[in-house]
Structure formats: structure tokens, C-alpha cells
Amino acid sequence: MLGFRSLFLTVATAGLIGLAGCNDANTTNNTATETTPAATNTETTDHSGHAGGKKKVNINTAILSELDKFEAQLGVPALSNKIQASRPYGSPEDLVSKKVITQQQFDQIKDQVTIEDIVLTGEAKDVDYMTKLGLMKGHLIVAKELLDQQKPDQAEPHIGHPVEEIYVDVEEQLEERKVKEFKTTLIGLQDQLKSNPKNEKIGANFETSMQAVDGAIQGLPEAQRTSPKFVLQVINGLLEAADAEYGAAVANNKITADIEYQDSRGFVNYANTLYKNISQQMAKENPDAHKQIQTSMAELTKAWPSVTAPAAPVKTPEQVSQLIATIGQNSQKVVK
Q1: Is residue 2 assigned to a domain?
Q2: How far apart, in Å, are the Cα atoms of 185 and each of 86, 152, 211, 213?
Q3: 248 with 72: CB under 8 angstroms?
Q4: Is 0.70 surpassed by the pTM of this model?
Q5: pLDDT for res 51
Q6: Which of 62, 85, 119 is the last residue of a domain?
Q7: What is the per-residue pLDDT for 62?
Q8: DSSP structure class, residue 206
Q9: Are 162 and 264 contained in the same domain?
Q10: Do the domain assignments include residue 130?
């Protein structure tokens, strides 16, 4: 991610809740509600995340990983930062009037952007919560790899992302779920890494930070955390975020943004870990979907051969997107 702001929707994201917003159409507590200054509209989505399409990205509040999908889609370098820097927007069309993108480019994404807030409830809210914590885990996983390679300068941004970009979006839910705050723990680790990267206490403090995120995940009921239906929604949210980051990392058959490459690696690695936790149950209850997901996940991870980006991408963004789409399609067989 190339910079930070403080409010994170999900799908990264709109994309993050393509599955995260999946609900039972007959269950009212799993409803995503879009709120505008003039009116409040309740939208009940089906299991494919559609009630007229995927959730849109709020260009006034989305974090960079969410906006990266447009950067990749339109091929505009640093577009995420440009969108962020030109806030606030009174309407999606302001992207054109403020000269962030051209009219032609806007026409390509106009159905994907909004200035409306989206309020999640029920299972969708729980999926959103765990997805955001999963993004934190992905960042920290990559940070640990870089620390192990004695690259604290590269690890520092990935320790910073969770607190600078994501934490504010789970803060209220942490209080609701009676989970102890850990923002100060993350900030302390980041400050320590900046000021004294050779401090021998960094390793122990890193583990404390990771344990704090794990503890926040424990705020969800165990039955939910081990349910394939629930976990697959989180996995697909993480993979959509990875898809956007990887697309922003690659240009002209080169990896031009190492941080985005590393972000996507972390998200995929944690998604893979989550899937392994439910793989036996999936193999027993949904063998066909399991086989497709397992095969696609194994192929997907090849795009990140190491935490250090290769000179040329192992897989194109299109290949990564297709593998993620296959995982999503097979997940729907379980989530529906």
C-alpha cells in the first residue's frame, strides 16, 4: 500500500465483501445497509454477493488496498493516492471534475464507486471483522519474513499498515466484543523498529503483537471460526484484497511496487493457512469444491516464490485473478 487513511470498508473492501456480505435472503440480521444523507436504504444480498452487483467502493472512505483495484483496472500509476488526496467527493463524478481520472476512465468504473456508507450487520459484520484482522495478520506475516532476512526497513511499513490503515475500522467492534485494545502494542513495535531496528526485544514484541491479533480473532465464537461457510467468506475477502494489491504491483511485465507484491503475498499466505484449517471438513462434506479450491490455491501461491519480489512476475495479474475467481466460484457452492 502506497499510503494510508483511517477508515477501511472492506473487500479490501467492496471486493472484500463480495462474499463477506453474503447472507441468507430470508435472514434479516445479515443485511447490508447503505446510508445516504437523504435516506437509508436496506439492501438484502444473496449468497453471490449480488443485489444488483458487488458492493461498491466508497471513494471517500476506502483504504488504498481497496482503491488499488481501480489502479490495476485502469492502469493509472499511483491512482489510489490520487483518489485519496482529492477527497472529499460530493459525487462519484467528482473523480472527473477534480481531474483524478478522465471521463473515459470513469465510465469504466462508474458502476463500482459510490460515496455512500455501508453498514454491516449479522454474519456480514462478523466476516468483515475477521477479514480485517486477517489483513493485519497478512501484513505481520510478511513483516516477520523480512525481519528474519534482516530487512527491518522493508518490514516496518507492513507493521505500520495494520495500525495506520485498518485498526480504526475494528476499534469499535473490539469494544463491542470486549477485546482488549492492542493499538498501543502495534504502535510501540513500529516505533521501536524505526528507532532501533537491532533492539533484541523486537522479536518478543512482534510475537506479542501477533498474539494480540489472534486474541481479537478469538472474540468470535469458535463454532463460527471453524465453520467452512464462514471461513470461506473471509478467505475470499483476503484473496480479493490480494488480487487488487498484486494488480497494482505489476506493470509492463515487471513488479514495480514491492510493498504491494508483499502485501498480496501476506494475504494469500494467511488465506491458505485458514483453508488448511477447514480442509479436512471440506474434503469430507464438499469433495468436489475442495479439490478445485485446493488445486487453485496451490497454483496461486506460486505467484509469490519469496518475500523478495522476482525480477519478472511468475504469474500475470490476469492469471492470479482467474485463480482467485475459481476459488470464489467453488466457495459459493458451500456458502450458498
Answers
A1: no
A2: 32, 18, 10, 10
A3: yes
A4: yes
A5: 27
A6: 119
A7: 83
A8: H
A9: no
A10: no
